[in-house]
Design brief:
Layout lengths: L2 H15 L9 E2 L12 E4 H12 L30 H4 L1 E5 L5 H7 L8 H19 L13 E13 L10 E10 L3 E10 L2 E14 L16 H19 L2 H4 L6 H15 L16 E3 L4 E6 L14 H20 L4 E10 L8 E12 L2 E11 L6 E12 L6 E3 L3 H24 E2 L17
Parallel strand pairs: 2-3, 8-14
Antiparallel strand pairs: 1-15, 3-5, 4-7, 4-10, 5-6, 6-7, 9-11, 10-13, 11-12, 12-13
């Protein structure tokens, strides 16, 4: 019996056994075909973190003066010395022991037993770095010499959270592989499963840097080894073309289209009237609507050395986790409900955050439609020495609620541009459902306050 038909029957059986999943009867396209498996297991995620440190020769724990890696620069290879690699070379799995480890469960759940997707993305980011380590192979590197590379997250292209029934007491399996490589960057496709059921998927872009993180480093070219790898590779090529065509950091500055200009005009007339504002009545908020200027939350965090990566800057996964969690709180307070994260996209890393910095996070509700809330989280850093401020990250997130949410409306031209940006990202979410999933139903989940939901 073919593996495809077996997996198809399993999906049908799961749906019959779990009618409460009528909220979101999606399944990844990857479930409907053979899965890329190498049989390699990297242990637990704690083992993965240890392997990364050992692979690049970085000491664990805190050191006032980190060990210099300048001596490794001479081992950086020439691109011509790097052999081709296939996806199976980097594929691996790692586990999070939720069933047997009560302390681990405590790290991954909210007070009501809700699974923390921010924490999950933090672990996936770490796994993506380890997969990058497994892809890069230097045949001329002398034995006993650490890998003269540093890997940093460039971008989270997107992440899907499609099944709302993560269980807090069932072990979690993370897996992934390199799906595309350039001169000094790689795309990583990562998956999350429980009981063999695919629950989440994320696409990362990882940059290879030299031993001191002062310049780019070459990576092995990726050559698909079979038809399955060719199909994954073709999908990755299409994503890369889209990324090059629409750079995420320029999206918010994109000039409105004719259709979007009409949308801005309609919002203007709804809030200011056809004749525009008058001295006595500048704005008028329609019923069941809220101003964007009042629909945000902010906080200030002080990262510590425990949150740093091997490059001695704040770990990207830590930033993503906190961006997701402030967005969840903002969406919850906006909707007066428990929102469920559905989609995250274009998590940009424009500037690394030094360990001695502070993080300022702001989450804005920028667009709403029916029971969906579209948010934008902006992460700024304040240097702890010079006290200068710079923008580090922007995160776009889509949440769904059980009931229809109030409509958010812009009050100024700059807010109108955010509104249009949020609308574009919401449309990308809807388009991705048709591209990445089958059997789409976008109704909100039932029993949304029950234990084991993902947020």
């Amino acid at each position: 019996m073919h593996l495809r038909s077996i997996l198809g029957r399993r999906v049908i059986e799961v749906r019959r056994l779990c009618p409460q999943l009528g909220a979101l009867r999606h399944r990844f396209v990857e479930c409907g075909r053979d899965q890329l498996e190498s049989g390699h297991c990297s242990g637990t995620m704690a083992d993965v973190a240890k392997k990364i440190r050992e692979h690049i020769g970085v000491e664990g724990g805190y050191h006032a003066i980190p060990k210099s890696r300048e001596g490794l620069l001479k081992f950086q290879p020439d691109p011509s010395d790097l052999p081709e690699r296939s996806m199976i070379d980097s594929q691996t799995t790692a586990s999070i022991l939720m069933e047997s480890d009560a302390l681990m469960r405590e790290r991954f759940v909210y007070g009501g037993g809700l699974l923390r997707m921010g924490r999950m993305m933090e672990e996936l980011d770490l796994l993506a770095v380890w997969i990058s380590h497994r892809h890069v192979f230097l045949p001329k590197l002398p034995k006993g010499i650490p890998l003269p590379y540093t890997f940093v997250t460039l971008l989270v292209d997107h992440g899907h959270f499609l099944v709302e029934k993560f269980k807090a007491d069932v072990d979690i399996s993370l897996s992934g592989h390199v799906s595309w490589s350039g001169n000094s960057s790689m795309e990583i496709t990562a998956y999350v499963r429980q009981n063999g059921m695919l629950l989440a998927k994320a696409i990362f872009m990882i940059a290879a840097r030299d031993a001191t993180n002062s310049g780019p480093a070459p990576v092995n070219p990726l050559t698909p080894a079979n038809e399955l790898e060719k199909s994954f590779y073709q999908e990755a090529l299409e994503r890369q073309k889209r990324r090059m065509g629409k750079l995420p950091h320029l999206e918010i500055k994109r000039k409105p289209s004719k259709e979007e200009e009409q949308i801005m005009y309609e919002v203007f007339t709804r809030t200011k009237g056809i004749e525009g504002p008058t001295p006595t009545d500048m704005t008028a908020l329609p019923p069941d609507c809220r101003w964007m200027s009042n629909s945000y939350r902010r906080t200030l965090l002080h990262p510590f050395p425990e949150h740093r990566n091997e490059a001695n800057t704040i770990f990207g996964g830590f930033i993503i986790r906190n961006a997701i969690e402030i967005a969840f709180m903002t969406a919850s307070l906006f909707s007066n409900n428990y929102p469920v994260i559905q989609f995250i996209s274009d998590v940009t890393f424009t500037h690394p955050i030094p360990v001695h910095s502070y993080m300022k996070l702001k989450a804005y509700v920028v667009y709403t439609q029916d029971n969906y809330v579209q948010l934008m989280t902006v992460v700024d850093a304040i240097d702890g020495n010079s006290f200068t401020q710079f923008q580090s990250n922007t995160v776009h997130l889509t949440y769904s609620c059980r009931q229809k949410v109030p409509e958010v409306l812009p009050k100024s031209y700059s807010e109108a541009l955010w509104y249009l940006t949020g609308r574009r990202y919401f449309q990308r979410f809807l388009e991705s459902i048709g591209r990445d999933m089958e059997g789409c139903e976008t109704s909100p989940p039932e029993n949304i306050n029950g234990a084991g939901e993902c947020i």
